[in-house]
Queue: 3 jobs
Job 1
Amino acid sequence: MHAPATTPISHSPAVRELLALAADGDAFHHVQAQVEHVAGCTRPVQLTGYTATLDATTGEPLSVYTTADEPTGRLLLACGNRRASVCPACSRLYAADTYHLIRAGLTGGKSVPDTVTTHPKVFATLTAPSFGPVHNRPGNLKPCRCGTHHAANDPALGTPLDPVTYDYCGAVLFNAHAGALWHRFTVYLRRHLAQHAGIKRSEFASVLRLSFAKVAEYQKRGAVHFHAVVRLDGPDGPTSPPPAWATPAVLADAITAAAAGVRLVIESDALGSHELAWGDQIDARPITATLGADGTLSDAAVAGYVAKYATKGAEATGTLDHALYCVPCKGSGQRSDGSHCRPCHGSGEGQPLRHLVVERHVRQLIRTCWHLGQLPEFEHLGLWRSAHMLGYRGHFSTKSRRYSTTLGALRDTRRQWRTEQARERLGLIGPDIPTLTTESAWAYLGTGYTPGEELLAATVRRNRANALRLKDEGEQSE
């Protein structure tokens, strides 16, 4: 006589959780819907609370949502991190918003008039100078200076040929002052344009307005450089045409001349005088509606390029994606009473720099940030706070005020659309619906998924990645 068959019990907590939820199909669908709503976000925020839609006149609740009705007792909210290395799902949304922001400044839309397409536009790249020769890939036939043909994934790429003579201090100071160099560049650019027009610098704003949107990118050697869309408008911004003499060629020439003339001298008792400037590789290419054979770029290609790099950080150089200073003492190494901080033993380091799992070149850049940050003349730079960013302190994506719409405005529009969709599903839209108001209260519970939710999130990520791959393949075959 055979023993009755038994259902095997999984040893996986994730599978056990999903099996328990599957016993109540309604609960499973609720959890699955939450995970899909955050698009498989890597570390979603967990909230508890409620939101209620009320009649503004009587205060009567017309619709109430509370996490008490959820199987897990909480709501998942996407983390919203822009960096692809931290959260690919949220970074794709950030990239999409950046794409529309950049594209609107090139072709119109999002409160920008379509006539902006006739304004001169240039895609500019400003790079860092040399701080010493590094391993690179100059060409398929030509070897690196070291005599080796490096593979694309060779970890030696971007590292100094001679670390002893490499100017690590100059590299860190350049990154720390990249924002100041950009500001000085825009000042010089206005001067060159005013000189070309034969007007005084004080009259520039009454004739022309300079608008731009830029993104920072790290080279393999750890130096920051900028990609920027630069546009010339009339005095009222994108709604007014620039003067006839303002052409893409004039703008490109002015960009090259302005960048070449920027100098920023840093004085230090310990290091002496350091002159900071942009590198020799300055590129300025006109932007047109379509890709041209004469070196021009299409507006779609530029918007996609900028959006791509808006989601990247210093991690492309092999550094870490989190701050390295001790949180309790905020990197000072001392407590409020002047005694040594116990967690970091007075070093200010959140983790010993010598134990960081990074390449030697990156560790030396981080160590240089730390040492320079201790000098009184560089205290205002907060280099120990930005050591994991190799000294760069600025935002990765910025724009001038009148270039186009803002990321905040795009998010507000999306939020309003979702609100209207939710009210339509609840039947709260129509001529007979009273004036509505919202009341809510939320509390932070934690971050991340349960094991079962993580399994569902992995499936969502894989499905979305496959959908994107198929979309890209379809576009490439057209």
Job 2
Amino acid sequence: MIDVLFADDHEMVRIGVSAYLSAQPDINVSAEADDGGEAVRLALELRPDIILMDLVMKEMDGIEATKQIIEQWPEAKIIVVTSFLDDEKVYPALEAGAVSYMLKTSKASEIAKAIRKTYEGQSILEPEVTSKIMNRMREKPEANLHNQLTDREMEILLLVAQGKSNQGIADELFIALKTVKVHISNILEKLEVHDRTQAVIYAFEHNLV
């Protein structure tokens, strides 16, 4: 079972989405929060597999809550579920540590799919979000940081870009899961990015895939 914490200040949204998700055979919404502060407390106390995070909430917003959770628990997997696509929401949320970004206009089945993919180690972004990030990166000076990657690191980066999980990469390359994690850590450091999502965007931006 994938254990989920759902933070949203709209009770009807929580009730509807939680009911659908908990009806899935592999997902359980074990806790809910109606503001960012409560989301931080429950996340650090319960350590759920996935956190669904609304961005606009009373007292503490989702961006600040995401930032505080990641600072104290870097392994947390946070999926933003919001109505907003404006720059001042998208970039701060991803920079704070969210690994996936979904819109509330998405079907409940799509959110369930995003939960499964994120749990497996992938990053799920709305097409509009990917487009925004790529356009922003085009405005930056060209930097071929990938030239620093070893052949093995480049191979793993391309598999990450294909949506492979860490375990999937380990199985395909016949190497240990721990080795994959070390390589990915080195890739992020060399590309000067913070997470897998930014590494994938880098790969697409530089025509590596």
Job 3
Amino acid sequence: MDMKKRVTVELRGRSPAEIAELVLDNSPSADGEIEGLTDDFKELEFLSLINVGLNSLTKLPSLPKLHKLELSDNNLSASLEMLSEKCPNLTYLNLSGNKIKELSSVEALQSLKSLQSVDLFNCEVTSLDDYRDSVFELLPQIIYLDGFDQDDNEAPDSEDEEEDRDGPPGDYDDEDDEDEEDEDNKEGGQVGRSFQEDEDDYGEEEDEEEDDQPGVQRQKRKRDVDDEGEDDDDEDN
């Protein structure tokens, strides 16, 4: 499916102004340009165009709210100046696996004042001497280059950030455990008392049944007396 048709499919009957995220990965462009995207996507914040055969960004529409742009595994070597014009609020840009060879191409990103992270992994420019120092010097606004800052500290993943906010796994309040144990003990005590009460009730019921049958008890006692008399007679004989 080409890029233009993919855009229509991803809309799913919605208007472009309702779309905040759009993924068009592996949907090839017919002429190496962006197709199907217009200025109507004014609320778009995340756009992914991985491996779509882009040669140029000249047809990139104006996307004022775009913060994250994925352009890896394409054929881009120039025209990066279009990004500062069309997407002035970018904070993250992935250009890995493109044909960027010169630092002059990277210099075109200087106008992206909000840019914090750039990825140029697997681009020829990374083989230049002092590549990292040069890029950090050209783009003083960025914090991370190819996933690491100037001190080689790795950029945090979004999942890690969420875990930090929620607290590490297993971090819980001991008081909650104590409350749960108290509840369990209370429930266990109630069960024990109920069981004992049932046993007492059952014993009382048996006593009541025996009291209700005095004839049976008298007959038993009489048989016992008769048996004793027979035993005495046998001894005498």
